[in-house]
Amino acid sequence: MKKSILITGCSSGIGSYTAQYLHQRGYRVFATARKQSDVDKLKNLGLESLQLDLDNSNSINKAVGEILDKTNGTLYALFNNAGYGIPGAVEDLNRNTVRKQFESIVFGPIELTNLILPVMRKQGYGRIIQNGSILGIITMPFRGAYCASKFALEAFNNTLRQELHGTQIFVSIIEPGPIKSEFRKNAHKNFQNALEDKSSIFENTYKNMEKEFLSNKKEKIPFSLGPEAVAKKITHALESTKPKAHYYIGFPAHLFAFLRRILPDSALDWVIRKSSSKENEWQAKQK
Ligand SMILES: NC(=O)c1ccc[n+]([C@@H]2O[C@H](COP(=O)([O-])OP(=O)(O)OC[C@H]3O[C@@H](n4cnc5c(N)ncnc54)[C@H](OP(=O)(O)O)[C@@H]3O)[C@@H](O)[C@H]2O)c1
Question: What angle do the packed helices 13-24 and 228-239 form, to 10 degrees?
């Protein structure tokens, strides 16, 4: 019998690529997306697809119910992939913006995982993979909401791994970055919706961020990899008898995870300021 996997956020980027890759590898893939037009596109690619919006409990319950009906109540794996960033300085974020970010990256994936866990416990095995980020391990300025949500996801993931110790349900988290996808384009849209019209001490910084970082100049992002780099690690997490707890993907992810372990905060802050000063320039503009 084919191994089945539910993947969230398959309309583009990592989710889209991984869904097609695993389908070709012989998995029964339930590629979910929040828009019906994307579900239709995925079906046209030959995938089994249905709507799942992580911000909506009804949508999560409905999708899981439909999938379990098709699989006789079993599921080999869950890949909590979907997510987006809402850029902006911490002092410019309101409660609703932070809540929105947490709905999609923390609350939705936890709710979904908790619906799938009894299925895995009953069948006696399973794989749960979270799409984390190196920004769940280190922070960068103007990404406070995103970093906080990925730190929270990381904490839930690590706790769950400890709680499932001794079972055949393995939990992994991938820390990719940067990967070519629609992430920056979507972050730009989120920035425009949440912050663009508001006055801020960081006005010049934001203009610069929009120009240099958010305009989706994919080719300009140093060390960026294609989504196939992620699919390779996902395959290991799904197929190894000893999946890793953490998978770092790309040079920056490896480097910053290492620096986090060896550097004091002040030195790490300096490195982060230097490495992102071109896109942010906050030092100069704040004076
Ligand atoms: N690209 C990178 O460098 C990078 C680095 C580290 C981590 N990640 C993580 O990788 C994951 C995938 O991102 P990506 O790079 O592939 O970006 P992407 O191309 O923008 O894909 C994000 C996907 O998530 C979906 N999504 C967002 N909010 C959702 C919600 N509430 N419910 C259901 N689906 C939702 C999007 O759907 P819509 O099309 O409907 O918006 C889209 O399918 C994210 O969790 C991201 O944080 C990416």
Answer: 50
pLDDT tens across 125-143, in order? 999 999 999 999 999 999 9
Q: What is the DSSP letter of 181?
A: S
Contact 9 CB / ligand 1 (< 6 Å): yes
Cα 102 from Cα 109, distance rounded (Å): 10
Dist. CA 71–CA 68, nearest whole Å: 5
Which residues participate in catalysis according to the annotation?
146
Beta bridge partners of 5: 29, 77
SS3 content of the chain, % helix, strand, coil (to 5): 55, 15, 30
Q: Is-cis flag, bond preceding 243, omega within 30?
A: no
The CB of 176 under 6 Å from ligand 1? The reply is yes
Q: 83 C-alpha vs ligand 1 centroid, how far in Å?
A: 4
Alpha helices in 164-222 (DSSP H): 183-194, 203-212
Number of structural domains (the chain) is 1
Measuring CA to CA, how many Å separate 48 from each of 38, 57, 127, 175, 230?
A: 12, 21, 20, 27, 21
Pick the residue whose CA is nearest to atom 27 on ligand 1.
Answer: 83
215/69 Cα distance (integer angstroms): 42
**Which helix (H) or strand (E) segment is 158 a member of?**
helix 144-163
The predicted-structure confidence for 174-213, as pLDDT tens digits, reads as follows 999 899 999 999 999 999 999 877 799 999 888 888 887 6
Residue found by looking up tokens 């995982």 in the block:
113
Q: Which helix (H) or strand (E) holds 127?
A: strand 126-131
52 lies in which domain range? 4-286
CATH number (domain holding residue 57):
3.40.50.720
Inter-axis angle of helices 108-123 and 144-163, to 10 degrees?
20
pTM: 0.96
In contact, 169 and 117? CB cutoff 8 Å: yes
